[in-house]
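Researcher: Before we compare anything, I want clean individual predictions. No alignment, no superposition, just each chain on its own. First chain goes here; please echo the sequence and then give the structure tokens.
Model: Echoing the first chain and its structure:
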Amino acid sequence: MKKIIFILIMLLPLVLSACTIADSNIQDKIASPENNTTPIQGKWVIDEVVISAEDEVTTDDSISNDVVEEESYLGREILFNKNAIVVADDYAENPTFKFKNVNTNDYLLYKYKVNPSSLNIQSENIQVITSLKDNQLFYEFVRYNEDNLLIYIDNAFYKLTKIADEVSSEEVNRYISIENNMMRTFDTIEVEDINSGVLLGIKTPTYDEENEISDWEYKTIWIKSENRNITKYELDKLLVPRKNGFWLVGVDRVKTDISINDKIFALPQFRRIDLDEAKLQLDNVKEQLELALDSFSKPLDESQESIALVASKPTILKDILFIGNDYISIEKTEVDNKNKKTLEVYALDNIEEERPIKLSDIVEDGEFLFNEGSQNIQSLGQNVIRNQFNVGLIRKNGYWILKGRINYQQKEEELYKDFNIKAIPPKAMVSYDELSIPWDIINTQFPGAVDVFSSPNGEFIIIVTSNELQIYPTENGELLSIEPISNIQLPNNASIIMSEWATGRYPNIWENEMINQGASIID
């Protein structure tokens, strides 16, 4: 029986690992920046509109504008060399690439809701090549033979045909120069459209009455401003934009008769397994574990039962404090250890391991900065624990900041003290974190403000109060109105754990993903 229990307990991390990106048919590779070649090279032409991913069959009444826009790409050239990519009127200098081999049906059906047959793809596997501009998704290409690619632009797939194996840097630079000159000319005639959006991760504390312990609920709010017309959506799960697409992130609470364990999950959205399936697998393992533990505990006497409970997995709660493109910061509570609370940072790519990252892996001179910040609070009590793995991210005065924690005991009570770390979170953790209007001015004009977020293009700010998000238009670092143009109610004690911004063509892509995930519009 002990062997059965051991096997069931070992099943749990295996199931959780199955719910992550470690899928046997998906292999991510990153093209080295020192490499003089790229996964795609040469000159290509857009010669066919293959299909719209959202609507495979278009009625005559809905053709006009979409068809005109789709046909405007036909005949346009796409250029690849080691220094740049040019895609019609768009370009990326010094791009980076990620490429992966995926199951054709899984990837196209579950990411784009399109059957491979609709795209005339017969092969079982395809290669997906993702180009990155300034560490953000630029365009994604599907290679299904040597001379043809597919590109996804504005909700439609286009076929590319190679017309030259190589393209010179001079030709690429000439295209870029033309586009820059056209943009400058355009700016003198007409004001460019303003378009930006933000995904905010919202956390609300709740209470698990059955087990008398803390719990938390998470959701995503999408705010888009297009020429200062506001669109708002809400999703009852955390949707995280990453370099290789959107992921769902959250916490599964696994309960047995003898323990509770919170497990962080991160699910890429191009895989067949979804959130409900992952939870079903976890529930099945939990049920088997509970049955085995129940049958095992019956013949034990009191002393043996005590030993079994002590040897069981402790109750551990995890509270998400921050999520970015590649990292997540949590507070871990060890309930059975006098509610000891520590901070941990994990990499999302191997979240199933829940292996914390130390400060010196995040910032230069991390060990020195941790010791410097904690030196004034190390004589507070007995058993002071100094550990540079004990770090996290929080919001303070309109910015994400790094903080450290010292755990100690005083009169047999488990306590802790937090301190600021004198380092700016690297861009790998926080991609955009600037204010168009300084916090001091916001705090003076809006005494009820507890936080503020600014769009990268200076179009609007979001002022956070204790129960509301207030959206104000801005220009050149000034408020255009003292009254909000829109607002969103927040639950009591809610906090923001994610702020990911999109500009240019990305707001429409992100909004479509929110809608595809089942988001509801906020009135």
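Researcher: Okay. Second chain, same rules.
Model: Second chain and its structure:
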Amino acid sequence: MEYSVVGKRLPQIDAVGKATGQAAFCADMSFPGVLVGMILRSVHPHARILNIDTSRALKLPGVRAVVTGKDTAGITYGFYTPKPINDEYGIAVDKVRYLGEQVAAVAAVDEDSAATALELIQVEYQPLPAVFDPEQAMQSDAPLIHDGKPNVSLEVNFAAGDVEKAFAQSDHLFEDEYITQAVCTSPMESHAALASYDDSGKLTIWCTTQSPHYVREALASTLQMPLGKIRVIKPMVGGGFGGKREMLGLDFCASLLAKKTRRPVKVVHSREEEFQSGRRRHAMVVNIKTGVNKDGGLTAKECRVVADGGAYNGHGPQIVAACVSWLTLVYRLENFRFKGYHVYTNKPVASAMRGFGNTQVRFADDCQLDRIANELGMDPLEIRLKNCRGPNEVTVQGAKITSCGLKECLQRVADDVDFKSKWGKMPRLRGIGLSCAAYVSGTKTFYPHDSSAAFIQVMEDGRVSLLTGAADIGQGSNTTLAQIAAEELGIALEDITVIAADTDVTPMDPGTCASRITFIAGNAVRIAAQDAKKQLAELAGEELEARPEDMEFKDRRIYVRGTPERALDFAEVVKGGLYSKKGMPVLGRGYYNPPSEFPSFKSGRGNRSPAYGFGAQAFEVEIDPDTGWVKIIRAAAAQDCGRAINPMAVEGQIEGSISMGMGQAVYEELFYDNGQTLNSSLAEYRMVTAPDVPQISTHIVETIDPEGPFGAKGISEMPVVPTSPAIANAVYDAIGVQIKSLPITPGKILAALDKR
């Protein structure tokens, strides 16, 4: 079917404002009388707080307030499960558990006064033994990071089939250990919060959040305020990648300081604070054992995952539980056993980051598959085609796969890079590799629901206000949702105004995570548009003397099906309803809660998503024999995204994901010394920049999912998942030695070449 707006390559509706600098980000915002907020952070990785003396800071001219844990209600917050597991304070109360944790906060008239006040606060600590390695933290004699609680905050156990029998009957067994590193989310915009508390007792906070409603819940709990007395507004956000999914200390501190001073307070993270106390991807150790027959058929798999969660849970337990699904979605498995551990250490908190644990276990699984293919003398493409998923399958974990274009994705990238003729046949120190991945389109992991709501308000001039709780953090979701609404109503994209992510104005939405916005919020928007359309059809039917069900909407006109000359202008119909004796304003309401399941956190079992996206990537690399540097020559990516609502946006997501995945593969790594992050600046933390990005060819595979809006599925996270294993497999092809830890540094390359 040919659509007017859906499927078109359209620029983001806020592009001009961003390009001209008119778009306001949180750090750009200010109010009369705004105070500067700053946070005092722990200088110990693990210590009990004996006393905090703020008297000297309070006497400093220009200081308006100082708050510590004693000024709070002492209530923890965290992630949602059927029983919330909360373990983090807005400000440390009894002790600090990582170097950089917030201990106190000040509000002053300017930055100099605030910074000086921090220096005047005296904190008396009792240092405690610390543990930084998750395997050591799991030992019985390890210091407890949370008093009275084990350092393993969640253990996941899953089993399906008869793994031992399948191993015994396998022709070959392969056992390997793969290690992935912690990396920082590093969005262009650092965290910021601007809070205001008025005389009516209403707290309003503008903050860099992916999930305004989630932040409101956390603030209501920790500040002991009614939900209705808190308003969270998301301004423009310059990237999040999962790191802005939760309430952080600065959101709490800005709010508490505003409440205490009755003046607006703004707190902005420095880049060093982002590295010291922002969220990061989990470092994981993945032990994997796979049974395989001589023809390359997978018979059984066993996996053990240990995730370094840092000092608090964040979304770590959910991530470890999700790894079960990631390991059973891509390739067929009937016999599978999994043990996963989320472990506390005295490091900064690891939590959600684009890919949500999938990047780590997919690196292990797909790299081992290349080793299996190599040792069996098989083509890596053929072994994947033999084992990969197809449509209408159910995994042992319980995921119900509807649409699936994985085989086509594999074939597309293989043909693009001429994989068949190059693999194993390239000149010395040049190689080619590929990988697969799968991901959710929304997930019932954060709440027992994964629902979104939307309102469509039609104005008398024919323009439409779309109200959605979904948060656009730079990925272009406002544009995608506007395209869905415009297509359904038969109007142009420029006729839509999107009002988003304001908890007082827009309806509930869990937030931008799990690649859910296009699918979940998109369905809610389409349902709201259909509701408005039904009301308009009744108005037009009366005027045209036709049945409402016979009305067609296109090109800003409403006409009778089969007789397009019997038509009314879209705006004319709206006016007719508003100005009639009955008075019929048009307001469409939409709500969507997908047919998925809340999974078990103890086993990972359950169909967590209504649909799953699939993809494949291939990379060609060249190794410098003198330096060991990996030069990425070219990349090809194919993505099954259902229907591409905006193909240009899909391509942008793929290209951005690949650059991020390249960082994990060969560039990025956080270094620690006794809990201290050593490379806490962009000068010291190596990230991918524009000159590093190779030629990328993208292929969109449209499978048209039956549940998605216009057949669409999620796209934003999945393309980051296959990048690091595809690059690692290309390096394996180039040097003949598999490097099993990330990042693949020059030192590891040279050591492998020397060993070979």
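Researcher: What stands out in the second chain?
Model: Residues 80 and 446 are 6 Å apart (CA to CA). Additionally, The mean pLDDT is 96.
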